[in-house]
Each structure stands twice: as C-alpha cells, then as structure tokens.
Amino acid sequence: MNSFLVYSFLLLVIGTQLVDAGKCADCIASGKHWCVTVNECGFTPCVTSIGKALNCPELPDKAHAYDDTFVRSKILVTTAAAFNSNPQKCF
User: Fold this and answer.
1) Which residues contact 59 (CB under 8 A, 6 or more apart)?
2) Residue environment code for 21-56, b if the CB has 16+ CB neighbours within 10 A, otherwise e
3) In 6, 50, 57, 74, which residue has its Cα 20 to 30 A from 20's Cα atom?
4) Rounded to an integer, what is the distance from CA 71 to the centroid of its chain?
5) How many other CB atoms are there within 10 angstroms of residue 20's CB atom?
6) What pLDDT, in 10s, does the model give residues 6-45?
C-alpha cells in the first residue's frame, strides 16, 4: 500500500514537471530563470532554478522509448554472456 502511494506521488510530481516543459523554454528565452520548486517563471526567492533551456524538463523521445522485449531478448542475454565466469562455446 505504501509503495502505491509513493509511486502515485512520484508520477504526480514528474507529470506536472513534464507538462511545464514548454513554459520553461519560453521563460528562459525571455531572459528569466525558471523556478523548479514552484514551476513558475522568474519566481524569487527560488531554491532550485534553471537558467539554460537545455536543462528544462521534457518528455522523452518516442523513437528511443523503453522496449521491454528488446531489453529481455537482447540486452540481458548479451550482458549475462559477457560477464559469465564460466563461458561456453555456442553452436
């Protein structure tokens, strides 16, 4: 139950930060700082601020999205084979 609440809270916090990505870039383009703490432009005093557009939160690129099938069938197998203490020849 507690883990569900933690995950729900994290999803809420991350989701609200990702929604404001466009606002952050617009704020920095206008010459101000984006305040991460309150998700507002030019808010002072701000504990954590962003001064470069590169650091604005943004949604991940869908072309590089996580693919569980790829990870399980390619990456996990390759990693297990590379770090095996008793390697065997494959036929």
Assistant:
1) 18, 21
2) eeebbebbeeebbbbbeeeebebeeeeebbeeeeeb
3) 6
4) 18
5) 19
6) 555 444 444 444 444 568 889 999 999 999 888 889 888 8
Q: Which two tokens stand for residue 38?
A: 């309150």
pLDDT for the residue 39? 87
Phi, psi of 55 (to 5 degrees): -90, 0
pTM for this model (two decimals): 0.44
User: Which residues, including other chains, have CB under 8 Å from residue 47's CB and lie 6 or more apart?
Assistant: 37
What's residue 5's pLDDT?
52
Amino acid of residue 73: S
